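Researcher: Let's try something more involved. This one mixes different molecule types, so please make sure each is placed in the same coordinate frame as the others.
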Amino acid sequence: MTGTYWDKAAISVQTEDFDPGAELSRLGQAGDCGAVASFIGQVRGDATAATAGVVALELEHYPGMTEGMLAALAEEATARWGLLAATLVHRVGMMAPGERIVFVATAAPHRAAALEACAYLIDRLKTDAPFWKRERRGAEAAWVEARESDDEAAARWG
Amino acid sequence: MITVKLFARIREDLGVGELSLPVADSVRDLRDTLCKERGSRWADALQSPQVIIAVNQQVAALDDLLSDGDEVAFFPPVTGG
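Model: All components are placed in one shared frame. Result:
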């Protein structure tokens, strides 16, 4: 994986797909690691009414601010849960249904810290990091609206 | 000068992603200048209460002060992840 490493966190915003297995193996090698937790987000296909007919998802971001925000979230999570390492990868550009968009993984001595920090990172990423999705259905393209449920999910972490 | 960056729906609605403006005292002054000089489409896009503002890549408020060389971004609520 290419990307920038801020101390314990690997941060990458990239057009190409990533290898979750390789990242999980790398995180597992962090000193004193007893637990690795991860989340993968993918492009939904035709399975639900909201995404029916979507042929592609286009991701735009704010270069620089995005990486800075992801690094800040990783630092917060590291301080709060005593993480040994964390990885945040987010793709940009065009993606088809079924493709991976985002990867969050955490390494900690015990499972609770790894699992909670992973949930925290994806919740906060969704409300704080400057990415925007646009759904393409044939010739039409529509910006995805922000969801209140995402704000509520992020707010529960205080 | 101030570098202004626009993203996503706002960039698309206004047809420009980046522009340079003379320095303004505050974010509010900068926004008011843009809205006055460029018309109602700009006013509609930039004055929406949903718009998020960042100065030098940190989320900012309308009353934050600006200095020469600052980067000010206007963007809609984020939808990543």
